[in-house]
Amino acid sequence: MAQDPLRANTTPSEDAAGIAHVDGSGSAKHVRHVERHAEAGLPMRQALKQQHKIAETQIHDITEKFRTAAGALAVGQLVKDEYFTLFESITAIEIMDPKMDSGFLQPGETVEESYDALAPLLPEEVIGIMDQLLSYEMAWHTGYPLSQTLFTSVYIDKLLYPESRVFEEAQFYRGFVPDDKRPGVLLEVLRAYCLALIKCCDFVIAKIVGRDYYEEEDFCTHTYNRVLFVQVPMDVFQRELNAAMERLVEEETDMDEVLRNALVTRLEFRLDMLTALDLECPIERLQKYWPTILKSLTLIDETHHLGEPVPDAFSTKIQRRLASTVPPRPIVELDFKDAFQKLRQLCDDCVEATRFAALPVDPLEYQSFLWSYASRTPAPLPYSRAYLSTILFHPNTLNTSMSVPLMDLRTLLLPASPILDQSNWTLSPPRDILMPKPPRLQLALLIDEFTERAGQNYIDLWTALGQNRCRLRRMLGHVILGWDQLCQDTAAVDEDLMRVVHDMGIEDEVFPFPLTTWVYHKKLWMMEKMVLLGFEQDIYFPDEFAGMYHFLSEISSGRRTILFRIQAHISDRIYALQDHRTTSKSTSTSPPPSNPQDQPATQQSQDLHDAHTYLTSLLHEATATTALAAALSTFYIITLYLRLLPYPIRPFSTELLRHELRMKPFLTLQPPEVQAFDESVKSLQPYGPYLEPDDKRVWRELGDKEGLLWRVVDERLKEAKEGLQGLKKGGAGVARAGGVQAEWEEEVKRGLKSCVALGVAVAGVKGVVGALAEVGRDGGGHGGKGLGEDLGIRLEIPGIGEGKRYSEGWVVGKVGKVDKGKGKGKGK
Amino acid sequence: MSATDAPSTASADELQYVQYEGDKEELYLPAIRQLISKDLSEPYSIYVYRYFLYQWGNLCYMALDSDKALIGVIVCKLEPHRSGTHRGYIAMLAVRETHRGKGIATKLVSLAIEGMVAGDADEVVLETEVTNTASLKLYERLGFLRSKRLHRYYLNGNTAFRLVLYLKEGTATKRADDAMRAMEGDRVVGDTQMEEGRYDREQFA
């Protein structure tokens, strides 16, 4: 009984009253009364109630005081106290306003819906209701509240309210019902379906709230004090479904076979859904369930037309009785076709998520998987994301012999390193605490200190990758700041580490300041992703493209430099190892270096080679990003000078202020990543302001296909292509994306296509710039004559999500010819 | 809406632009409510209007025709934001359908921004639906940039852009002082959204 929300917060004496009302007939008056009890859970009411009991009631007449005070005000004068906030104002309603006052009845309107839930139904109608429920279920999955979807069903309402004390009470009626009104087989079938559906909702809510993977905007967990059979185990619902199927087959022998099969299919589907959504489902068996559901989906789809809608079985009036602060809102209508599409997507996404369990134990593979999952289109629903995160954060995934950040660190920076030698962790501190600890033990302790500090940041990144795409971009901003702090905190640990390394004389085997380098590298990677997400989400205005791609190129270039240095270090180590082997073969006296004794040289060599290959892959990727971003940036600089992009005057803003606003997420980073405004202007406006270039060479340079900026575009584009081809050649496995090979290959392909598209656009613009010499003769201040559409071309920026971009993050303008007749009118 | 939407100053100037006055609520408010609620799926209660107009009536401007009929209105606020900035917020903007495309909204927004500048604002912020191209164009021509995309921001499930206009240098690096931080405790979170609800959760989630 403790789970009963109506009673949980009330005192024993009131408890009895509550029960009496719950058991009552459910008339409007009683319902209202019970709802007041529901509200008793509010802390303020509770406090008032207790005071009421302790203190003797005293009544003061304040009429006079009130009159005097009110007399000081003019008629209509407003009074506002400081506690009246925006939130208060928004949640306020106006009594007797039909749109706000949920108790307002139109003439002749009744509070209760008049639909008779015990009236017999035709099989077609049951199918119709079931499919309508499915539509509402999916509408709920896409983010609408239960009150506007499933809870508008009279049948669901009857099952849930008044809340049943024992499960058997959950019927379309309460108490006594004459025999001739008792529900027949078809109503029992519908009941079993509804019960299982409610339990599915319970499972879904539990899964989603169990993770940090949803926001109110994504998904509404509110159940309005209705209890979705939280305490009833799953087998009860399975039993109901099975019994309903049996009765259908045994008792409804006259029913059309096709209709009966359609009903059985729907019950079986619910049974499968329950099993798949079950929270207790063991991780190793996850993969089994979803394919079964996918099969029954086709059957449901094929028999949907058999159904007969029963609109009266759904009503907004039920909202009036739900514990909510908002007035009734319209029912959310989602077409069966669209709902079905969502359901199919949900299943597909869950199937995909189950593949996570089969990934090799490697946080970089996880990262690739999470990134690829977050990039799926259409975007996975909150449930699927929560489903994946449950697998991601499952103890099986996290309980590895080496901590997750450390595995990542080892792959990038410390392969076969004495710093991570297992034996370091087996040493004991000296008995005398004044004695220095053995250096290897010091290494182990420093690494432990670091991984403990870095763990949360790592999880934060994973969590961000599980959010909806818009939030992912915003959350990355916060995660980056966290990693920035981590970078600063790590500096001290790194210094200690390097001191020990120095004392041990193993500097040659350790990349200098490995921990900060690793953190910094990851931070830069996230910044790149965040900028690309900005393009993907249509955040930047076309005249910002040049600047944002320039910024992206700068970050990526910095990351590339780091990768070069790491790879050079790994190469040195490979040579050193080979040298050692050759020398130790001839002179066996040479002592082995400090390398891990228990690790055979062949294993070390293998690890180093693997790291080298991985770094090659990363380098290709960083090169491609740096170069393509630079090529695009330069291309957009050119097109800004040519007035092929809109460049609003913006009376209330300046370039400086916009630069500050745009760079806000990165302004505090250390070391500074944001170019000072003046520097940025120099890079982005090499010939002076776009509308009034003061460098006279501009038209000559842009008019010459071999001019400086054109050469930059061509060279960087070539570099980008080479990078992507190298990346592709290395393959997904080497890039630590073997688990999502197909998606990874697709992304590389899209990058290559973007390069090709840019090549085409460049050729299109180059084709008309010959005429620029004429513009040059006019000098700078010509008001744009001979530019823009006067060039005979226009640059179209492909919008997001229209399939017009090869890659959503790489926005490549498309050059089109201006229709001379039309062009005149528009090109003002 | 495209280039033809550009302000044709002539028709915008025929109107009279008037600042709201608190003691004329009876005169103005019914028309304001009527005009604004036309574009809303669910009405705001009178308290929402009063919340803004009582405190920032000086940042509410109305476009009236020669018969004093309300053609357009903008409702705003300006107050310290917990990010540390003095933040202007455009809460409502509406122009009568028959008068759109004449630059009236642009004029109203400009007046409001000027009012905020006079009130020492650091920035101006608002949200608008990602599909509302006319509104996006209007604000972006004035200098606003899109800072965030807000998934399913509105109750009808539509997604919004947050638009921001910086008015002063150094706005991005302003930090909340301690007094402001103490206010974080009573942040508002609800199932009705308008600036604060969504924004706050994001900042402190």
Automatic annotation (TrEMBL), chain A:
List where in the cell it is found. Cytoplasm
Query: Which residue intervals define the domain NAA35-like N-terminal in the entry?
Result: 76-235
Q: Region entry Disordered: which residue ranges?
A: 1-27, 581-606
What single Pfam family name could you report for this chain, choosing any that match? Answer: TPR_NAA35
What are the protein's UniProt keywords? Coiled coil, Cytoplasm
- What residue stretches are annotated with the NAA35-like TPR repeats domain? 369-678
GO CC annotations, alphabetized: NatC complex
State the coiled-coil residue ranges. 234-261
> Per its UniProt record, what InterPro entries does this chain match?
NAA35-like_N, Naa35_N, TPR_NAA35
Q: Which family does it belong to?
A: Belongs to the MAK10 family.
> What is the protein name for this chain?
Mak10-domain-containing protein
List the lineage, top down: Eukaryota, Fungi, Dikarya, Ascomycota, Pezizomycotina
TrEMBL record, chain B:
Annotated N-acetyltransferase domain ranges read 18-168
Keyword presence, Chloroplast: no
Q: Where does this protein have coiled-coil stretches?
A: none
What does the record give as the reaction this protein catalyses? N-terminal L-methionyl-L-leucyl-[protein] + acetyl-CoA = N-terminal N(alpha)-acetyl-L-methionyl-L-leucyl-[protein] + CoA + H(+); N-terminal L-methionyl-L-tyrosyl-[protein] + acetyl-CoA = N-terminal N(alpha)-acetyl-L-methionyl-L-tyrosyl-[protein] + CoA + H(+); N-terminal L-methionyl-L-isoleucyl-[protein] + acetyl-CoA = N-terminal N(alpha)-acetyl-L-methionyl-L-isoleucyl-[protein] + CoA + H(+); N-terminal L-methionyl-L-tryptophyl-[protein] + acetyl-CoA = N-terminal N(alpha)-acetyl-L-methionyl-L-tryptophyl-[protein] + CoA + H(+)
Grouped into one coarse class, the protein's main location is cytoplasm
Task: Give this protein's Gene Ontology molecular function annotations.
Answer: protein N-terminal-methionine acetyltransferase activity
Quote the Gene3D superfamilies the UniProt record gives: 3.40.630.30
**Where does this polypeptide localize?**
Cytoplasm; Nucleus
Example GO CC term: the record gives: nucleus
Name the UniProt record assigns to this protein: N-terminal methionine N(alpha)-acetyltransferase NatC
- Protein species of origin: Amniculicola lignicola CBS 123094
